Automatic annotation (TrEMBL):
GO terms for cellular component: cytoplasm. It comes from Prymnesium parvum. Gene3D superfamilies: Acyl-CoA dehydrogenase/oxidase, N-terminal domain (1.10.540.10), Butyryl-CoA Dehydrogenase, subunit A, domain 2 (2.40.110.10), Butyryl-CoA Dehydrogenase, subunit A, domain 3 (1.20.140.10). Residues 257-407 form the Acyl-CoA dehydrogenase/oxidase C-terminal domain. GO terms for molecular function: acyl-CoA dehydrogenase activity; flavin adenine dinucleotide binding. This is Acyl-CoA dehydrogenase. Residues 26-137 form the Acyl-CoA dehydrogenase/oxidase N-terminal domain. Residues 142-245 form the Acyl-CoA oxidase/dehydrogenase middle domain.
Amino acid sequence: MELAAFDELKAKLWAFMHAHIYPNEREFAAQCREMARRSDEWTCPPLMLELQRKARQLGLWNLFLPVDSAAAAGVKGGGLTNRQYAEVCEILGTSSHAEFAAQATNCTSPDTGNMETLARYGSPEQRERWLLPLLEGRIRSCFAMTEPAVASSDATNIGISIERDSAAGEYVINGSKWWITGAGSLHCKIMILMGKTDAKAPLHRQQSQILVPMDTPGITLLRPLKAFGDDDAPKGHMEIQFDNVRVPFENVLLGEGRGFEISQGRLGPGRIHHCMRIIGQAERSLALMCKRISERRAFGKRLSEFDTILQDVANSRIELEACRLLIFRAAEMMDSHGNADARTRQYLAMVKAHVPRTCQTLVDRCIQAHGALGVSEDTPLFAAFAGARALRIADGPDEVHLLTTAKIELKIQKHSPLASLGYYQADRTQVFRRSTDPISEEAQQRLDAASKL
């Protein structure tokens, strides 16, 4: 999108946030809590439907879908690059819940990742059936990858059974998944499931991704899992059991054994989106801290006059700017080199390893500056802290991304022009001192004086 048009879009989005999102934050939270308390039939709160209608009318809809993915699917996206959408994500993330505004604009996870997956890898029939209603906001979706029995941060561990029934032309799925975000909503109509189709294939060709309609017999939602006490209704993070779940062969995405490949392409944009929304949360937290310390007094002066508090403010601003620039660089790499490029993958790993933990520390400072108020539900700080902490595990834990960063760095450094410079050769021709060298009279006097102490 051209710069002038992009600036106009951001101004329109900010106006939408101030007019419709910020004033409705507490009402939306109340509707979600009431829905969770009342029954197990979780649906979209009435307020969200109203906000979605307004967002569509204003043209603030599907901004996440980048130009290349939209073109591949033959649909209309936001017309933004990944770099531009990163800025949009930060604005959306300033709502009290990181995905409140994102959901209002049809830019929430896991739908964004699923829609981009369908746009990039889905067949024309799959896109017609599932992508179009998702883009229109008529249905929701979920992505089933994590399993309770294995360390799912290593995608090659994913082991839910997907067996072929050639006579029926169907896949038969058995096993369990958990932390399946979005599956709790009755609006969730389609699941992208990753499972093992061939245990004898090469390691990265054993898994496939299958489209599983949520009304398929054999799917049981066992329970909503709570993250720091929050069940995240009406989306939910569900534990799911699959008992002889059957779907036709044509529901496979891209082909058997391509699941790992799809995951690598899918998760890159999502990591950018999550981290920029967390930047938005951190910006709002810092704004609250600055307001608080400018108004409160202790020991005869304002909190903003204490050096330690000022250092916290300075460090927070420096860290935020560094995080933002790292994300922008990763987004630019995605735009120019694609998700599969090694350097792009390294930047994405650096973003995911660095930004959530940095923002968690930053929000913790903001909580500290608020005292007891900071740990209450009277500010959005507790939600920002919980969100940043949870994100250090979601989409892969810090340790995995640090490992990825280091492995790629070692490969890159093998070809670095600086590595060939080597080390300086020490000059060993000039001897410092030999054991048989005579000692000067002055040195002997100092030695004698020391021995008499």
